[in-house]
Design goal:
single chain, mainly beta, 2 helices, 5% helix, 62% strand
């Protein structure tokens, strides 16, 4: 019966340890390995006083200290002075004082606490270490040292088995290359990656600022993958997106979802569903509802295309300039001027924009189109426009009456955003309505010539110059319908962008109004054989 009772007690003891520890243990008792001196005192009869080179062990864990109180009945001890607890060859905990419960397998360390795991080191004044779950926790401030990273916080938790650390309240991660500040942060010592779970600021050594609320940051490679409307700021350039990838080593940023890249120094912006940016060169790309904005003047210019590319030259110098390339379904809007074309190249250095592929430009009731258009600016305002091949300018008077000029090439010159005069060359045809000062329309003039210059004053025709010309004046009530409109005439009001949001709605020309590319016939070269 005595043997049965002893066995029952042992089973109950092990079961109790299993319930408390959460895992099966083979020996739950703390072992005293060595002590120079062991004695008891009447003031605490449950404690064995250990003094001098004290060594204890429990479940693969070894402890050394100057002195200790060992409670056999409670299977616990309190260690004092030069306390060192080791587990395997990778975990080491040192402190001034350590309280340990064998049943709970928990340690409470105080005073100059240092938890070392492989190459990582955690320093704090108070640390609770749970050996069952392998978790160390502090609540009074601590510092984690890992390679080049130094991480401070008021509350922290470190799990050596998973190499995961979780920090809260005034989290500050310092590195020679960057500084990270957050309120909550996960950090992994094996990969040196930080998982961002709250508003986080990252400032790099070159002044780049990164903000994110969710994602991860590779502290070793300087790569960030951020979600939830994150952004990057460097100098006066800012990138914002629903999600963001940033690689510090290459200087490449990629943003997805409602992306906005702003350059306040040059007063321009690039938006889209996807944007790519190289901070080393200043080059950028945008697709999906892509828009380039230029807001150096009071009225912003909006340019949309299926794909936008921005090239920067002389980056980070006083002579910096940019080129914008827009491909497919290009639409532009500003309150004073609108345009559409298939593709566009804008060269900031030359203050010139080239429009290709059925281009059309509108200014109030004026419309210009041709096979190719070059627009020259001065201080972000149109100075003059050069229309090449099948050029035509139209001024709308009413729903059926239009002043028209067609030519091989045409130039329109602007002053304060309004057409000041036009020049037409090569196969010039003119339809012009004559109007009295009171607005009465008295007739229409149809003219054919080789060259023409037309001057405007207060938005009305002031004078016209042309060399020898043939023409006919038709009274207002006797204008032949076939003479009212020049060949190729079309009023593209159904294509014209009406506001900055309408630039996304592509509307092409009706098939009968599409320009067929003109060809120049070459004179056959004469050969010497032709004269023999």
């Amino acid at each position: 019966m005595l043997l049965v009772g002893i066995l029952c007690c042992l089973v109950c003891g092990v079961a109790s340890a299993q319930r408390r520890g959460g895992r099966k243990v083979t020996d739950s008792r703390i072992h005293l390995i060595h002590s120079d001196l062991l004695y008891k005192t009447p003031s605490d009869v449950t404690a064995e006083i250990l003094v001098g080179h004290v060594r204890l062990s429990h479940e693969g864990c070894f402890l050394s200290c100057d002195s200790a109180r060992y409670y056999r009945s409670d299977n616990s001890f309190d260690a004092y002075g030069h306390v060192v607890m080791t587990q395997g060859d990778t975990l080491r905990l040192t402190s001034d004082v350590l309280e340990y419960s064998g049943y709970e397998m928990q340690a409470h360390a105080t005073g100059n606490v240092v938890l070392t795991h492989r190459k990582s080191k955690l320093k704090t004044e108070k640390l609770d270490y749970d050996r069952v779950y392998g978790v160390g926790m502090y609540t009074t401030g601590g510092t984690l040292y890992d390679q080049d990273n130094v991480l401070n916080s008021e509350w922290g938790q470190y799990t050596p088995s998973t190499r995961e650390a979780y920090f809260m309240t005034n989290v500050d991660l310092k590195n020679p290359k960057f500084n990270l500040v957050s309120d909550k942060l996960y950090y992994y010592t094996d990969t040196e990656k930080a998982r961002i779970v709250s508003p986080t600021n990252i400032t790099t050594s070159d002044g780049t600022f990164v903000y994110g609320e969710s994602g991860d940051y590779d502290t070793r490679k300087g790569r960030a993958n951020l979600l939830d409307r994150s952004y990057i700021i460097k100098d006066m350039r800012k990138i914002v997106g629903d999600s963001l990838h940033y690689d510090k080593s290459s200087g490449i940023s990629e943003a997805f979802g409602d992306v906005v890249i702003t350059d306040d120094e040059n007063q321009c912006a690039l938006t889209g569903d996807y944007c790519w940016y190289d901070e080393n060169t200043g080059n950028a790309l945008s697709t999906g509802r892509a828009v380039a904005m230029e807001y150096s003047s009071p009225d912003t210019m909006y340019v949309h295309g299926d794909t936008l590319r921005m090239y920067t030259f002389n980056h980070d110098t006083d002579s910096v300039y940019r080129n914008l390339h827009a491909y497919r379904h290009v639409r532009m809007f500003r309150n004073d001027v609108q345009a559409v074309c298939d593709s566009l190249v804008s060269i900031q250095k030359d203050s010139c924009t080239y429009l290709y592929g059925q281009p059309i430009i509108w200014n109030e009731n004026q419309q210009i189109f041709g096979e190719e258009i070059h627009v020259y600016n001065n201080d972000s305002t149109v100075e003059w426009v050069d229309v090449l091949r099948q050029a035509m300018t139209i001024e709308k008077l009413d729903s059926v009456s239009f002043n028209q000029v067609s030519a091989t090439e045409m130039k329109s010159f602007f002053v304060n955003g309004e057409i000041e005069h036009n020049e037409a060359k090569g196969n010039v045809y003119v339809v012009y309505f004559l109007v009295e000062d009171d607005g009465t329309r008295i007739g229409m003039n149809y003219t054919e010539t080789t060259e023409m210059k037309l001057y405007m004053r207060e938005k009305k025709v002031d004078k016209i110059w042309m060399p020898a010309a043939t023409g006919t004046m038709f009274p207002a009530l006797k204008i032949p319908e076939e003479k009212r409109y020049l060949k190729g005439f079309a009023w593209f009001d159904y294509i014209r962008p009406v506001d900055k949001d309408d630039i996304f709605e592509w509307r092409g020309k009706n098939s009968e109004n599409v320009l067929q590319k003109s060809t120049t016939k070459m004179i056959p070269l004469q050969r010497l054989d032709d004269f023999r």
